[in-house]
Fold:
Amino acid sequence: MGNYQYVDIFATKGIEYLFVIGFLVTLVAFWRFLNKTAVPRAGGVPPASPASRPWFRIVDGLYFHQGHSWARVEDKQTVVIGMDDFAQKLVGEMHTINLPKLGEHIQQGKRAWDIIVESKSIPMRSPVSGRVVAINEEVMASPKMVNDDPYERGWLVKVRPGGLQSDVTNLLSGKLARAWMEQTVDALRARSSGNLGMVLQDGGIPVLGIAKNLSRDHWHEIASEFLLDTQSLEET
Structure:
C-alpha cells in the first residue's frame, strides 16, 4: 500500500519509556500523599515530644542572675530571692542551707548564702542588693523544699532593696532567660561528652544531683563553675 511503513513500538525503546513515565507518575502521587499526611490539622498544634520540653523551668515574672539565683518583686519595699530550678537539680539533695541573718545587707553578685552537700560548702550569689527582712525558716529546717518547689515554697530570703532599678538591668527575664538556660543545657551536653544518660532519667527528665552524675570525684568543682563560685575555684 504505497510507501506506508508500520513501526512497532515494542520492537524499539518505546516500552522502556512507558515504564519510566509510569514510575514517575507513581512517585509523584506517593510524594503528594506523604506531604498531605504530614500537614497538621488547621488550628491545632502537634503535642511537644519529650525531647522538645525544657530541661529546667523558667518562670515568668522572675529576674534571673547568671549564678542561678532569682528575684521576684513582691512590692516596692520587698524582693523575694531564691535559687533556680537548674541550681537545685545541679547540686541535688542539700543537707543544710546557711542563710544570711535578719538585718544583714547583701549585695548583687556577691556571696549571700551557702548550700552544704556532703560536707562541701557552695556559696551562691545574690541577684539583688538589699537588707534582709525575712528568712524562710522552713527551708532551713527542711532544705528539700527547695528541690520540691524552688520558685514558691522554696524561697530563701526577702530583702528591702536598694537600687533595684539598676539591679534588674543586670538580670535576665522572659525570652532572654530562656535563651540563657538553653545555653546552660548546651554546656551540660558538652560536659557529658554526648552521653546524656549521665544527666537524664528515662523520659528526658534531668536527674537530681547532676554534678555528681557527671563526676563523682569533681562534682564540687562542676557545681562551683556553673554557680559562678570563682572563690572555690581560685582565690579572688
In short: The mean pLDDT is 80. DSSP finds nine helices and nine strands in the chain.
